[in-house]
Amino acid sequence: MNLKLIASFFVLSTGVCLGQSLVAPEMAPGPASEPKKPIIFDLSSIDKTADPCTDFYKYACGNWVAKNPVPADQVRWGRFNELAERNAYLLYAELKTAAEEPKTPLQKKYGDYFASCMNVDLADRLGAKPLQPVLDKIATLKDKKQLAAMVAELQSEYALGTFYALYVQQDQKDSSQQIASTRQAGLTLPDRSYYLTDDARSEKLRGEYIEHVRKMFLLLGDAPEQAAAEANSVMTIETALGKGSTDRVEMRDPAKVYHIMTLTELQALSPDYDWTAYLKGTKIGEFKTLNVATPDFFKAMNAELDTASLDSIKSYLRWHALRTAAPLLSRPFVEENFNFFSATLQGQKEDTPRWKRCTRATDGALGEAVGQDWVKQNFPPDAKANMEKLVAALELALGQDIKELPWMSDATKVEAKAKLDAIRNKIGYPANWRDYSSLTVKRDDYLGNVERSAEFERARNLAKLGKPVDEREWGMTPPTVNAYYSPSQNDINFPAGILQPPFFDNSKDPAVNFGGIGTVIGHEMTHGFDDQGSKYDPQGNVRPWFTAEDRAKFTERTDCEVKEYDGFKVAEGQNLNGKLTLGENTADNGGIRIAYQALEEVLAKQGAAAEPGYVDGKLDGYTPQQRFFLAFGQLWCQNQTEQNARVLAKTDPHSTGEWRAKGTVQNFDEFGKAFGCKVGQPMMPTNSCRVW
Ligand SMILES: [Zn+2]
Prior knowledge:
The chain has helices spanning 56-67, 79-100, 105-118, 120-126, 132-139, 147-158, 193-196, 200-219, 224-244, 248-251, 263-269, 275-282, 295-307, 310-325, 331-346, 354-378, 381-404, 410-422, 446-462, 510-527, 548-566, 582-606, 624-635, 642-651, 657-665, 669-674, and strands at residues 76-78, 164-171, 174-184, 260-262, 289-292, 424-428, 484-486, 491-495, 569-571, 574-575, 638-640. It has a four-stranded mixed β-sheet. The protein is of the alpha+beta class. It is globular, with a radius of gyration of 26 Å. The structure holds zinc ion (ZN). The site of zinc ion (ZN) has 5 residues, from helix 20 and helix 22. The site of zinc ion has 5 residues, from helix 20 and helix 22.
């Protein structure tokens, strides 16, 4: 799914403190009822009035879509959310117990973190007070020459992301090395295009954004003229940074984000910014060279820092402190923050209940502490063994697929197979859990906890510099409903959270499990061979391993997908971006093909024994092949607000649910055969695309 080459913001504190509470926990209310357990292959979701050959999504999901409007506290509602909601509910119950009656020091730690977030009463009493130390710090900036040292301090002591990010990552040309890297950041709106696009909708939103910033400064107590001037300064600086930023599609190309430089070379890009002072302040170790992912950005940043007044720069820093802390402060800040980011930008009607926000926040900060207890309750040992079997079946199928690929030369096939054989599988949860003993959690200091936890993660990341890579590390927490592939590590990762219905149900027939989790496994494997992944070799190094001729054929085929998905509409005047979503679409299309092949293998080997309960080759009126496609299609049933569809079309590398279902099956003729479609019908077009 999402490619996370970087882990962001973090830092460190010393000493263990289990947080003596002086304040009685004033718990915000919990969930009203237990969310229902999602099911895999849901007959009642099917709209039999629709024709699967004309609109498969409507057929597979029509009744679900009609019966499941977006809840008031959400902007998108689909099968993933149903499961995530249930996982959050189970996690909440565990966190509440830990907050009230902790049995271990670890439970005490995450229980206190959770309690500090749930204490709305304390947050309301404190108002903007928790923010005062960082605002005081920013006020000490007297000269632009001190800015770099200030940015370092804000990033490391206050977890404040401004201007750019510094982190340690695997060297993309030598994945055994962990190197320093820096890249553009520092925008508030979801994408650079929000600052630059010249149309009425964008102009209106920019006006609303400036108004929001102004209101937030007013809440902080700034005088009206000052608040208005500050809001304009923020917009001016962010617009300049946006102009200097590289767009998302270019950021997908490993060659475009790899520029190894010395410090002197980086300094030459932004001569007025004191990098030596900055690096000293970050406490990162010594290095000779670093990767400057976005050199043009640093030139633009330098130019803007020359132009902007000291006061404007301070307004920009104050704004980032304010917006980062706003959801953690008293009600007026929380509400104004919600009004812009959730309501205006995303179309959300009501704020997310506190218990959900606090559950998510605790999982984000202490996920591998919380997860240890969560997997004991929610991840039975046989689930792991069953997943291993499924993964092995998919590996065989992808090997077969590569062997039979009509467009690829034998030389490249040998390399592709070697890459497939080298993929490592991580299932469920980490073999060794992260040690949080150096993280201080205080029951009466929510903002402090968030800052210290970000500090802890940042320090953990920066400490990797020059060290060997830990291949056992996970980038997602156990209850997460998601999965990922890492190109530098060449591994696929499936958190325990996704190994449940509607993705996986051990009591169901293979057809629905291959259509569910099987297509997810296939998707992650295919990421190793998409527009990005295919540039990395088995060891996770960027190295051309295709012959030039095969690379040209690959690009011709991915261009077909780009064009196809460019044509899919998500809102009035807003289509998907075929280049932005290319990797995910390639993974969807390859994933379903190999999951289907793996199912056919099982059916051929086991025959009727694989599908008990079938009458005349059908169960519930569907053949195994039809059940496979329906289980797949139903993963993508969803509703979303129009605003959310627009934001995601500009920022999300994944296509929307409807097009993940339809785009995929219309490129796979086995679908048309399974449902008896005729060539030329919408789901069985003559101009379909195939990469893998
Ligand atoms: Zn993906």
